[in-house]
Amino acid sequence: MPKNLHSSRREWTSTILGSILATTLPATWGALPSPSHAVDKEEIAAPIRAAAKALQALLDNWEESVIDCNYADVPRELLETKNKEQLLEKASTFALFDKSVSVVTCKTNNKKIRDYLGRTGLGPVVGLDKKLRLALDLIDDPDDLDAYVAATETIQQALSRADSYSYTAGGDYSALNNFAKEETAKVLESNGNLKQVRQSIQLAIDNLNVVLKIISKS
Predict the structure, then answer these.
(1) CB-based contacts of 211: which residues, under 8 Å, 6+ apart?
(2) What percent of the chain has pLDDT over 90?
(3) Is this model's pTM higher than 0.90 or not?
(4) What are phi and psi of 36, to 5 degrees?
(5) Is residue 102 part of a domain?
(6) Does residue 30 register a pLDDT over 50?
(7) How many domains does the chain have?
(8) Can you give the CATH number for the domain in which 131 is found?
């Protein structure tokens, strides 16, 4: 492809990609910068790699990240009138050392997901859109350019979907009502919002790896 034709294609792609990013990303993720023609490959790739690594860490520690078991409930049978004497006995001085007085219960929690997605303004995913845009100047192969744009669009859509479902998950029944710790696996399997978040994040990671592969060969 002639150099001037390639340059025109790059400028057109940059404009289209900017439009995609502007319409798919939450406003708090910041405005897009103008493309730079003096970019360093590692400087651009490093934060993209860090974002992929952070999102993978979230999935690798999924249960610990979305389940909060800092709740202790008195067993329901102890609250019955016939067990009043037993309840008072277990609530005595030695109750703190008697695990049968209370049971550990849990709730789902979307806070760490929101943190990892950059919704608190911290973490490697914040500003990811800017790095993805700037990396266009590293790509010379037209086929790679097309693949890059497709992967980037998928990343933005996946992260926006994860953002939306994680927000909704904050109002799930399991986020508002306690459940027994041993029911954790069942709750995670049946929670549609959290499953959508996980699938979306995995899709984003897969395409971030595509982007990094394209950048590395440029």
Answers:
(1) 48, 132, 135, 148, 151, 152, 155
(2) 54
(3) no
(4) -105, 145
(5) no
(6) no
(7) 1
(8) 1.20.1420
Taking alpha carbons only, the member of 72, 76, 59 closest to residue 188 is: 59
- Is residue 209, in this structure, part of any structural domain at all? yes
- 63 closest CA partner among 173, 213, 183: 183
How does pLDDT run across 156-206, given as a tens digit for each residue? 999 999 999 999 999 999 999 999 999 999 999 999 999 999 999 999 999
Range of the domain at 152: 3-67+108-217
State the amino acid at position 183 in one-letter form. Answer: E
**What is residue 60's predicted lDDT score, i.e. its pLDDT?**
98
Task: Concatenate the DSSP letters of all residues of 8-31 into one string.
Answer: HHHHHHHHHHHHHHHHHS-GGG-P
120-145 burial: b if 16+ Cβ within 10 Å, else e: eeebbbbebbbbbbbbbbbbeeeebb
For residue 76, tell me if it sits in a domain: no
pLDDT at 145 (0 to 100): 93
Residue (of 109, 103, 106) closest to 181 by Cα position: 106
Mean pLDDT of the chain: 80
Residue with tokens 């493309």: 35
Q: Is residue 189 part of a domain?
A: yes
Could you tell me whether strands 67-73 and 179-180 are parallel, antiparallel, or unpaired per DSSP bridges?
Answer: unpaired
Q: Which residues contact 53 (CB under 8 A, 6 or more apart)?
A: 124
Per-residue pLDDT reduced to its tens digit, 35-60: 444 457 888 899 999 999 999 999 99
Give me the pLDDT at residue 126, please. 93
Q: Can you give the pLDDT at residue 122? A: 87
Q: How far apart are CA 200 and CA 177, in angstroms?
A: 25
